[in-house]
What we know:
Layout: H1 2-5, H2 13-25, H3 33-43, H4 49-65, H5 69-82, H6 92-104, H7 109-128, H8 137-145, H9 149-159, H10 167-175, H11 184-202, H12 217-223, H13 228-233, H14 250-257, H15 283-311
Helix pairs in contact: 2-3, 3-5, 4-5, 4-15, 5-7, 6-7, 6-8, 6-15, 7-11, 9-15, 11-12
Protein name: Neurofibromin
Region (Disordered): 245-274
Organism: Culex pipiens
Amino acid sequence: MEACMRDIPECDWLQTWTSLAKSFAFCYNPALQPRALIVFGCISKSITDQDVKQLLRILVKALESFNDIILLEALVMCLTRLQPLLRPESPIHKALFWIAISVLQLDESTLYAAGLALLEQNLHTLNSQQLFDKQNIADVMMATREPLEWHFKQLDHAVGLSFKSNFHFALVGHLLKGFRHPTPTTVSRTSRILTMLLGIIAKPQRRDKFEVTPESVAYLTALVCLSEEVRSRCHVKHTLPRVDVAGGDPSAAGAATGGTQPGSAGGNGGNVRRQKSWDMLDQSAIQYARQSHKVQQHQVNVMFGRLALDIA
């Protein structure tokens, strides 16, 4: 379309298309709104803070019911596309970091992938603005979250990860779920984000990103089993020996698996505690755990909605 517009005088096809996409994106329509949001994010050439805040208000409405995952995914993807178009001094840049983290806390694989993409774009945008050249990422982001600490404290408690106690380990705790994601692109994006964070935290002190420090140890620990570069640069002092269980040494196999040989009492007089298999667990306990998880996830959705509303 842009190629055709160059040869047509006073042609405003793109502006008209953008205006139509915007009107459909901000208007409730289960059939058209998700598609319009994606189109609006892809073809927009500029964006204002008010437009992004309007998108956050739509996100709040969608979180209240949480029955339209496609709309939620489209909103996150739209925010990912629009963030680079925001003015550099906009306070929404830092707020979107916490929006992305909150999306990762939602128990939905498609939303996790979209939230991870938003987080990657957010870190890339803030890093390109040289925000982390002299300031630590933990200090920058925790200062941004301070006015909304009441909401974040509840979110941290629901998930079991405290950014206030240890920012870096809490962040890695959310990213580790990406390695178990069924989509290969999400797995590779997780590794890419962890590597990017290694470079970001090394910037203020002008040190090598593979140097082991209290800030980098969380990211290095997550990458050491996946990245050959990390293993070559950060030598592991202690490793577990590899035991060939199939090699025919019953004692070694028993020691490796932590079990005892059939018919033997074991070293503790037969009091070796075995972990119950899934089939042997009490079904009522399993049902209770599932119900508790649903209640906890509902609380996360509600608190995320309140957080997005306050940011908007």
